[in-house]
Amino acid sequence: MNLAGYAIRHNAVTLLAVVLLTLGGGVAYLRLGCLEDPEFTIKEAVIYTQYPGATASEVELEVTDPENLPRYIAEAHEYMSRLLAA
Description:
44% of the residues lie in helices and 0% in strands. 0% of the residues are buried. The chain is an all-alpha fold. The chain has four helices and no strands.
């Protein structure tokens, strides 16, 4: 049987199918889960060290050497250090 011919001869059935599919699509779209602002976690670590009597360059060499940091914080992609003399 020819589908196009059937749709033309039985236009009420075709119209009902189109309306049901349109309504079903609209309901499915409205129930679709969406996150405008998905949650994400910012992982951050702050390490304070005190070396009384040590200079800033000594602390930098012993504690904040960027080559040693991946051993302590494996998942970090960026390292930043700030040294303040007290």
